[in-house]
Design brief:
Blueprint lengths: L2 E12 L3 E5 L5 E8 L1 E6 L2 E5 L3 E5 L5 E6 L4 E10 L1 H4 L5 E3 L4 H14 L5 H18 L7 H12 L7 H7 L4 H12 L3 H19 L4 H8 L4 H12 L3 H10 L1
Antiparallel strand pairs: 1-8, 2-7, 3-6, 3-8, 4-5, 4-7, 6-9
Helix pairs in contact: 2-3, 4-7, 7-8, 7-9, 7-10, 8-9
Length: about 250
């Protein structure tokens, strides 16, 4: 889906904030809640969103907004244009358990207000990631077994986890765990664990100055050379290259 960034805005902490009924004729809008509660009246429904959640206003959709309660409301909102048909099928409210939407929209805000070289290209890339993250919230919920493995693995990522460790964590024999996990996740548990380690590596490269050696220990790779090889095999990129791009901006 081709998308064009229009703007990003911020509602500073406000009590009693409200917006009269209106619609956007030239863009879609995504509201990420940072603080407080926001009620939206849209499609004859009242939808309330809190921190960790986001609201979508598709192009041309009449909506009204107001802050609820005594706690100040604070949001970041992104406006963009893309074909309306697909966006209108997305949920009007999304729950963001991993904090990806807030992370990406805060990054967009920083890029937009502290211009660097290639600002437009950065905003385009971040917008694509933001919309992919929001669209994924409409997918079926993760299977309970997979979710339990994810939670356990993320809490022990720096440890030398083996298949037996994961099976024990969810109370299954090695054989039954492997069979059931492959059936639900469409990959083996160790492939899934490797994917989690690569994702964690990418996050640390983008958000911290930690050297590769420290990152490798933190996410469970034997050393920085093992990390670099697996990262390249999985993403097609070298971690050092991603780090250099981050340092430039």
């Amino acid at each position: 889906m081709r998308s064009t960034f229009r703007s990003i805005g911020h509602i500073p902490p406000s009590v009693g904030w409200r917006m009269k009924p209106h619609s956007h004729d030239r863009f879609h809008e995504l509201i990420v809640i940072l603080r407080g509660e926001l009620q939206a009246d849209i499609r004859n429904r009242k939808i309330v969103a809190a921190p960790g959640e986001a609201l979508l206003y598709p192009i041309g959709e009449l909506h009204e907004e107001q802050a609820l309660g005594k706690e100040p409301l604070e949001t970041l909102h992104v406006a963009w244009w893309s074909s309306p048909a697909k966006v209108r099928r997305w949920p009007l409210k999304g729950t963001d358990p991993h904090g990806r939407l807030e992370y990406l929209v805060r990054w967009m805000w920083d890029v937009n207000h502290h211009p660097q070289s290639q600002k437009n290209e950065q905003l385009k890339t971040l917008l694509t990631a933001l919309l992919c993250a929001y669209e994924s919230l409409s997918y079926p919920a993760e299977d309970e077994l997979v979710a339990r493995v994810r939670k356990y693995a993320q809490s022990h990522l720096g440890e030398p986890l083996q298949l037996d460790d994961l099976a024990l964590a969810v109370g299954l024999s090695r054989y039954h765990f492997l069979r059931r996990f492959r059936e639900k996740a469409k990959q083996t548990p160790m492939q899934f664990l490797r994917q989690l380690r690569v994702q964690a590596t990418q996050t640390l490269l983008l958000t911290t100055p930690l050297p590769l050696r420290a990152i490798a220990r933190h996410v469970g790779f034997a050393d920085e050379y093992h990390l670099s090889r697996v990262f390249h095999e999985t993403t097609g990129k070298r971690p050092s290259r991603l780090r250099k791009r981050t340092e430039k901006h």
